[in-house]
Amino acid sequence: MTARIEQLLIYPVKSCAGVAVPEALLTETGLDLDRAWMVVDAEGEFVTQREMPRLALVQPQLKTDHLVLRAPGMLALHIAIDRVEQPLTVRVWDDIVPAYDLGALAGQWITDFLAQPHTGDARPSVGPCRLVRFDPEHRRLSSLKWTGGLEAPNQFSDGYPLLVLSQASLDGLNQRLLSAGEAPVAMARFRPNIVLSGLQAHDEDRLSWLSLATASGPVRLKLVKPCPRCPIPNIDPTTALSHPAVGDALHAYRPDARLGGAVTFGMNAIVCEGDGVSLSVGQSLLGELDFG
Questions:
Q1: What is the pLDDT of residues 167-191, one digit of tens each?
Q2: Phi and psi for 51 in degrees, rounded to 5?
Q3: Residue ranges making up the domain that contains 78
Q4: At 169, which CATH number?
């Protein structure tokens, strides 16, 4: 089947807002600069919207050589993309990985913002925080069980280089929400990297490959694992307030036997070919069905 790239989204800082781009460089770790930065607490443990929903309100902007962070009530924070300070070790899920601290100013900025009162917070504060950059020399690999033994490095993502979701899948969910008297939700709730049009709802679940021929070379993306969903899609990215309607709707029709009944929405993918090739909104991809 054929699908069209409807959106490309990069999340420079893990668990902060995404950046919609018309074109993105594909690397072996996913879209360039995706989840290259992360917030950690004083012990180096990763901090996400699960603990601090206010992270949804941090709006990154990528400039030629700078990452700019904006948030309500805060002056903009400008960070040189190639700037790091001292090395340190951090934890993201079960992985302990090397990273680089971005310094006291960046740490104070994120700490001050997260310390502001907010009714949606699961807890008032995580204490002093730091902003860190992934060490590009380190290879943090996706689960070999799900990649079929293929080595797929990623940075601070939850575990895979890319997340693929179809617009039709979101449309189907929104129909269910409307039928239940709830408001429809935006794609931003689900934090995909590649949004596809031209598919039926959840066709991405049945795809094994997405491929594309470009002047710079072929692209081959392998869809390897359904994406299990935590409470983050319940968080409104415009307010950082949580409401259970999305999770309740998904539990009614999206339990996935492949993950022991966990609720899934979207597919994790790895990059098998195409490192260094640019993807663009509007490109057509050939999808190969999984008949296994």
A1: 999 999 999 999 999 999 999 999 9
A2: -95, -35
A3: 2-289
A4: 2.40.33.20
